[in-house]
Amino acid sequence: MRISRTLAAGCMLAVTAFADDVVLPDGKAKTLIENTCSECHGLDRIAETTMSSGKWRATVSSMVRKGATLSPEEIDTVVEYLSVYFAPDKINVNTATAQELQNALDLSAGEAGAVVRYRTANGKFKNFADLQKVPGVDAKKFADGKDQIAF
Q1: How far apart, in Å, are the Cα atoms of 60 and each of 5, 80, 113, 115?
Q2: Are 58 and 45 in contact (CB under 8 A)?
Q3: Do the beta carbons of residue 145 and residue 115 sit within 8 Å?
Q4: 109 within 8 A of 93, measured Cβ to Cβ
Q5: CB burial string 54-84: b at 16+ within 10 A, e below
Q6: Is the pLDDT of residue 127 over 90?
Q7: Residue 17: which H helix or E strand, with range?
């Protein structure tokens, strides 16, 4: 029993040491994130996560509701930083499944399905303008994810 506790304590120290070793990329919100986010969890959680801008905004807003102290301007700065440095890889709208489109571009299941149906009926998208022709999808969602889209 004593060995188990010692082993568990050693593992916790190793995890904590790893979390403390995370170095975020230089940027406008680096210090703000280090000071605010590390109050509740290690920076490794951030470094291991990639999300779209919309999902980062939802996550940061959730953290603020749970007690993180950020002004609205600071929230914008943090979301912008996270969206640049911890964004998912680009998604190819000509080969992605509906689920992949939904996750990467913050589309609803119906919108992602509409993209796949349109692509099947009309052929591959050649550019951003082609993608904006998909009926039933808010073009703003494509504009928000433009940096994550590949053809």
Answers
A1: 35, 11, 28, 29
A2: no
A3: no
A4: no
A5: ebbbebbeebbeeebebeeebbebbbbbbbe
A6: yes
A7: helix 2-20
94 vs 115: CA distance, rounded Å: 9
Q: What are phi and psi of 149, to 5 degrees?
A: -100, 135
Which of 3, 26, 6 lies closest to 14 in space, CA to CA? Answer: 6
Query: First vs last Cα of the chain: how many Å apart?
Result: 57
How would residue 108 be classed by pLDDT, with cut points 50, 70 and 90?
Answer: very high
Query: Structure tokens of 51?
Result: 């999300």
34/42 Cα distance (integer angstroms):
9
Residue 150 DSSP SS3:
strand
> Can you tell me the distance from the alpha carbon of 43 to that of 70, in angstroms, rounded to the nearest whole number?
17
Q: Are 53 and 79 in contact (CB under 8 A)?
A: yes
Whether pTM > 0.70 for this model: the answer is no
- The dihedral built from the CA positions of residue 131, 100, 61 and 29, taken in this order, carries a sign that is negative
